[in-house]
Design a protein that fits this description.
Length: 751
Amino acid sequence: MKIKQLMVLALALLMLACAKNDDDMALNLIPYPVEVQRQDGFLTLDVENLTVSGDADFAVDQLNNQMAKLLNCQMKKSDKGIIQFRLVNDTDLPSEGYRLRVDDEIIIEATGKAGLLYGAHTLRQLFQREDDKLMVPRLSITDYPRFAWRGMHLDVSRHFFSVDEVKQFLDYMVMNKLNTFHWHLVDDQGWRLEIKKYPKLTEVGAWRDNIGFSANQEKGLNTKNTKPYGGYYTQDEVRDIVAYAADRNITIVPEIELPGHSAAALVAYPEYYCRNAGSLSIWDQAGVSAGVYCAGKESTFQFLEDVLAETMDLFPGEFIHIGGDETPKDTWLACPDCKKRMKQEGAHDEHALQSYFVHRIEKFLNQHSRRLIGWDEILDGGLAQSAAVMSWRGVAGGVKAAEAGHDVVMTPMFPYYFNHTQNHLSTSPGHPGISTLRDVYTFPSIPTDISAEKRSHVIGVQANMWSEYMPEFEHIEYNLFPRVFAISEVAWSPAIRKWEDFYTRVQHQLSVIEQLGVTPGDISYHVRINVEPDYADKSAGIEFVTERPNPVYYTIDGTQPTPDSKLYEGSFRLREDAHIKAIQFKADGSSTHQSEKELIFHKAFGKPYKLKYAYAPQYDGGGEYGLTNGFLGVEVGVEEKPIDLVIDLGEVTDISHINSRFKNAPMSWVFGPKKVTYQVSADGELFEQVAVFEPGVTQSDVNEMVDYPADFELTKARYVRVVAESVGICPSWHPAAGGKAWLFSDEVIVR
Ligand code: ACM
Ligand code: ZN
């Protein structure tokens, strides 16, 4: 290790050590309590004599298992314990809250079982074993949750997880004071819930020919390709899991996907599929099948009501999740029954038909005193006021829903989809796309665009675990930890704390979870390069953000950084084209990867443009100037339609070069353009074509950015138009043939 590195590391350690002396920081609690008052010293308990009394049976039973593994001791019930659990009538204490006092004894008070349970989990985190003693810091804590809905989701359709694994997942939730388990029970790839009236749902719909998802085999991620592959939960097993969850203050929200994502159900009962729609198979790959319930047949609704009635019998919670996302509606438009329904109901298009479908199901749930929740697509066409919305396509759906008076659960896919990997290791299981621990921790969970008086409609946050690329439970654990600590604290604690403080507590909690036998995900050695362009100043501020405290070394000329390169000491500003590369080295001097970003102060830098077809809110390229912000690497995404933009350079300018860049990643439903043309104009009316490319579209599974550079004779122009034609719909060779395709564009460079 170089001297410079040693010095920086020593400084970092010193800073951590100083911070540790701060009382508040020395408590390695997650989620961090609302109010902590430290007193001097520790209460020392004899491990042979850890007596508890009061309303504690359920908490003690649950904790002793962990105590045995972590601390090699257990609590024992007694009439007058050193640890006392008390149910109190304290009107100041919010629901699920508790008070914990450690002086010469330990008192946990709450108004209900939930608070006592959470107090017990906090106490377990406070115990430190030293020889035959348990040391507990003297303190008093008052604690209660920020959000009522503190959710974790698990997809058991794409891959099936056993009853024991689901229970394990619930254990991880309660340890993190999460209280809502969104159980994604059905999808195109398998139906997992026994329904007595429709036995084929599980006899047929729970089994696919192969485990599928070939990317997993290529990565060596699965060992269980039983044929057929699948499984389901019997109603007895579900009742057992529901009770197990309730003991942990967890409400289960079952998801019965409709009208789309329904191939497994429709293979079992094809009579509820549209007429003339062809045949379906149970999917063994990612994506969305054409499987959609026929909205025209009355029998479809009878079937769904029967299924939902049995579902409601099993799950006592207030909410039933009905999916509602990514409905493939083309089938409806070709179905005589659906067309008839549209006419009858005055539904002018397929979106209105989806709205009819959701409304009808909602009415049924409301008649049974339940509330509907669904993915943010259910907002299209209007909803009854009592329905709640899960915002997954970014935060826009959450803003729209809250403003319209609906309760909202924020689960934007970046960063709350934990199926995205959290580090940059090619071996990590999960979907491509990175959501780091820090991304989860620092994301603004209540969108700032929601007006102050509507904020209370955000009832919670949730992290989702889609299991396409996690065939085994150990992969779920790998992707859950350590990020579950971040969602825990975001959901529970009133404010997020300094990153360095959280990171230190995470290190401690990781050692705990490893003692429980979990292999958590690696924390990334990634350097995020943030660029803050200043268009008026023709410059850009550069900031590096890391998860780990290790130093960062960087270059701006595109060369490979080494430990002799410039050491990052704080944000800086650039005014010239640059190719930034930055690395964080591991303690042994090795590195896992480097980050890079190209900055180009070209003639369209910071110039406004108009897009003929709007980008999707979740692919906004970084906002208003996404295509002219001067840096490469964040794309604008448009579904089905062309990317057709006109940039206004502000004045007539000499130009002789245009380059635009498009993504080609067909297996992510993103196709390169069919044709790209560049046109220029002095007045914005009359455009002259200066270049054309016709790359066409070929079958492949690449994931690449393709440049379309054009040099032409020096021209005077104020307006630059780029027209990139989309393939529109996925071609016949594609797994989602007929589905809508995406077109993704990066910076348009003008010189
Ligand atoms: C979703 O991720 N399709 C809700
Ligand atoms: Zn139909």
